[in-house]
Amino acid sequence: DTGVSQDPRHKITKRGQNVTFRCDPISEHNRLYWYRQTLGQGPEFLTYFQNEAQLEKSRLLSDRFSAERPKGSFSTLEIQRTEQGDSAMYLCASSLVGAGGSNEQFFGPGTRLTVL
Amino acid sequence: LAKTTQPISMDSYEGQEVNITCSHNNIATNDYITWYQQFPSQGPRFIIQGYKTKVTNEVASLFIPADRKSSTLSLPRVSLSDTAVYYCLVGEGSGGYNKLIFGAGTRLAVHP
Q1: pLDDT along chain A (116 residues), means of 10
Q2: Considering only alpha carbons, which residue of chain A is nearest residue B86?
Q3: Number of Cβ atoms within 10 Å of the Cβ of B9
Q4: N or C: which end of chain B has fewer CB within 10 A?
Q5: Chain A: residue nearest B39 by CA?
């Protein structure tokens, strides 16, 4: 499968614990995005990377959230001191901007986080 | 980014044509209109994108009037597998270069 992959698919944690999610984009894609989706709502933008550079962060991304894309390939999203309000589906997407790319964002299956 | 308004839910039956209309009164000159589909427990999937007039692909058609203040996604002869949430997005550049701004979408239920 050459699509966007995310790991884990499900994560259950206790309030106050740290969690880390991984996203592997489509290999030639230079942009990687993180979104969060709660039940009944559309995805909300969190942040995006152009190669390894983090170019924009939403105000939704509090100090407890950090995202990295160290080598311009896979990305990790870490949430420290999780709160029950962090329970959501975390979606990753990637796209190829420029170089003849369509700019279309391809989404992964998401990581469903439940904070008890 | 332009705000969009679309119906919260729609119901249809197998074999019927479904038209979902989206309003985007404040669309800017550089904005494209993009529709995504999302099934439960999956990420959204690109359906179609257009700038003006009509665009058709193997999945759907997109009708955009001259003033571009609204658009209509048309799904021909829907089946049960078309039951999903459909999002209308408006953003600068093809595909929405930076970030996609999703609304609540339209929940389409297709009945036998």
Answers
A1: 90 98 95 94 93 90 94 95 97 85 86 97
A2: A42
A3: 11
A4: C
A5: A109
B73, B86 contact by CB (below 8 A): yes
Distances from the Cα of B41 to the Cαs of A111, B6, B44, B112, in angstroms? Answer: 9, 22, 10, 22
Q: Can you tell me whether residue A11 is helix, strand or coil? A: strand
| Token pair belonging to B74 | 């048309």
Do the strands B9-13 and B106-111 form a parallel or antiparallel pair, or are they unpaired? Answer: parallel
pLDDT band at B94 (very low <50, low <70, confident <90, very high): low
- Chain B residues near any Cβ of chain A (below 8 Å): 41-46, 49, 85, 87, 93-105
Alpha-carbon A97 to chain mean position: 18
Distance CA B69, CA B72 (A): 11
pLDDT at B2: 60
- Cα–Cα distance measured from residue B66 to residue B37, given in angstroms and rounded to the nearest whole number: 25
Tell me the nearest-neighbour CA distance from B49 into chain A, angstroms.
9
Which of A107, A111, A113, A114 is the mutation pick for testing B, counting most B CBs within 10 A? A107
